[in-house]
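Figure S7 source data.
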Amino acid sequence: MTITGARVIVACPGRNFVTLKIETDQGIYGIGDATLNGREKAVVAYLEEHVIPCLLGRDATRIEDAWQFLYRGAYWRRGPVTMAAISAVDVALWDIKGKAAGLPLYQLLGGASRSGVLVYGHASGASIEQAVDAVGRYVAMGYKAVRVQSGIPGVRGAYGIDRGDLSYEPADAALPSETLWSTPAYLDFAPKLFQRVREVHGFDIELLHDAHHRLTPIEAARLGKSLEPFRLFWLEDPTPAENQEAFRLIRQHTVTPLAVGEVFNSIHDCRELIQNQLIDYIRCSVVHAGGITQLRQIAGLAALFQVRMGCHGATDLSPACMGAALHFDLWAPNFGIQEYMRHTQATDELFPHAYVFKDGCLHPGDAPGIGVDIDEKLAAKHPYQAKQLPIARLADGTMWNW
Ligand code: EZ4
Ligand code: CO
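Tokens for the predicted EZ4 complex:
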């Protein structure tokens, strides 16, 4: 089966998505997500200028060889732009292989390890009481796990707060909007938030929280310790993970489980944290960590050290990424949980998909391949809009981590 065509489709149904579509001489095509939030055009150029010319005429069935060709062959390895492009090719080729075999992707990986994929939703509010109410709405929808974020008094534009419609899209302006950050205010506030959530909703629901890279190691240790009575499923990105040794310090002080990895793009980013058992969940996404081909190697490495998978699944990853992730999750023996921010109706219409939500779990469905398509006519009606992620500053103007 030969690759006869490949093109990049950029569409903005409220937020930008980059999708690679690969066509073959047998009439079978596949799609893969290539979205890098706020830096979309860099991946478009990487694919169009450097990758697509290499794909034409290749054997579409040789997924591993295509991965190695693009990774080793580029000479310049790793990095979010390169790896998002490789991921898109990888997933599109897995999609083609599944369609050619008449099998859903999870069957190609080794079959289902479970009946469904446990997901967590995003509850947030401008105040503690609003956040508590938002958790209640997720419980009513059947969710068994919920991430909770709240506005913090004295902090303008705290991370993770939606605008009232259950969807949170931080990339909101052509140039980065400015938010304000205060670690002392946050550290005093966070235990009060989770105390109230547990008082109202009890302990039958799993709760998660994202510190979004904002703390120093000793601050993260304090946060983890102060949240222990509220039994978090995980505390995410407590401190930036370039310095992986830092997690040793956090570990010495708290038994709150830790999750890291949404900005990782290589198994090498994960290795030290996993083999030193400094984290409990590895959060790489299909689209940013080299597709199914590399993600299953990460899962294999993690399994050796009892670290479980918790794939990133924010709405800046398209339904094509979500579909691929759900097949992976249904198979992965060391699966933990999958993030599931619901896409808007406009996005769901653009990407018709087989996955369904039921009783707190998603199932990828049994359509061949990844079970997600793109409506190209609809895509043409949603042209690209420049949007970047916000930045964060301290009160005195110092740049901080958003
Ligand atoms: O801020 O995906 O866990 N989820 C997150 C996300 C990230 C966005 C950045 O593009 O941290 O909301
Ligand atoms: Co996160």
